[in-house]
Amino acid sequence: MIFFSDGTTDKKLAYGEFKNNSKKLAAGLINKAGFRRGNVLAIFSPNQVDYPTVLFGAIAAGGIVTFVNPMYTIEEFTYQLKDSGAKYIVAFLSNVIKATTADDKEINGIKPYSYLISEKEVNPVEYSEEAKSTTAYLCYSSGTTGKNKGVETTHFNMVANLS
User: Fold this and answer.
1) Are residues 4 and 49 in contact, defined by beta-carbon separation less than 8 angstroms?
2) Which one of 50, 90, 107, 156 counts the least CB within 10 Å of its CB?
3) Could you list the pLDDT tens digit for every one of the 163 residues in the chain?
4) Alpha-carbon Rg of the chain, whole angstroms?
5) Where does the chain show beta strands of DSSP type E?
6) What is the pTM assigned to this prediction?
7) Rounded CA gap, 13 and 30, in Å?
8) Residue 13 DSSP SS3
9) Domains (ranges, CATH) in the chain?
10) Rounded to whole angstroms, how far apart are CA atoms 113 and 88?
């Protein structure tokens, strides 16, 4: 069953493949990159078919995801990395130069990684009462005045929105 389809490239992602790849990415983040619960991972990519795999892989690893506008300048990108406390970046090919330039500034000890797929899978973090108030997403406002501001969205907020 096709779960995601990219209208630009016509690449498709089946549900089983998405689930498997997300769990493998989570294992790679934890076992290969030292990712820990509560770490922030920045996704620096336009919308494309692999985006959900990265998003759910980071969540399955117990992390927080911040979404970075792929059109940001290096300065805007750097600001969001500092402000969000992101320690990991997954960048689309067209954003790699900006991502590595920001990393050269040694922001938050960031280690830019591309897909970190492990042979093992990790089971997603189990639901708990604590998860209700745990941040899942750190989205940034467009900033009508001053700098963009981070807006925390908890797991419970997402469930309530989907319900």
Assistant:
1) yes
2) 156
3) 888 888 888 889 999 999 999 998 899 899 888 999 999 999 988 888 888 999 999 999 999 999 999 898 888 888 898 899 998 888 887 777 777 776 555 566 665 554 444 455 555 555 567 767 788 888 888 767 778 888 888 888 887 877 8
4) 15
5) 2-5, 12-14, 40-44, 64-68, 88-91, 111-112, 135-140, 150-154
6) 0.81
7) 24
8) strand
9) 8-120 (3.40.50.980)
10) 7
